[in-house]
Design brief:
single chain; mainly alpha; 7 helices; globular
């Protein structure tokens, strides 16, 4: 999936719960194997989205956006992969 700039900006403003709800709704009918495969390829997509942002944009917010991206990428997602049955509503 490729996001247009407006959708990307909108999604960047969501908090963790809103992001989880968005992703869960988007992929509700997706099987676990396909979802895991999609997640495995998400690193390249994330790099592409982040590359479009300026250093100033990455430094905005509290915590700064770069720190939120890192936390969500390296801490949050693996929790879902470790126990998917606990993270699906």
């Amino acid at each position: 999936m490729t996001l247009d700039p407006d959708e990307s900006d909108r999604l960047l403003k969501l908090d963790t719960d809103e992001t989880n709800a968005y992703v869960q709704d988007l992929y509700r009918e997706t099987g676990w194997a396909e979802a895991r495969s999609y997640w495995a390829g998400s690193c390249d997509r994330l790099r592409g989205e982040v590359a479009r942002l300026s250093d100033q944009q990455l430094a905005e917010g509290e915590p700064p956006l770069w720190k939120s991206i890192a936390g969500e990428s390296f801490n949050h997602f693996p929790l879902h992969l470790a126990a998917p049955e606990k993270t699906v509503g």
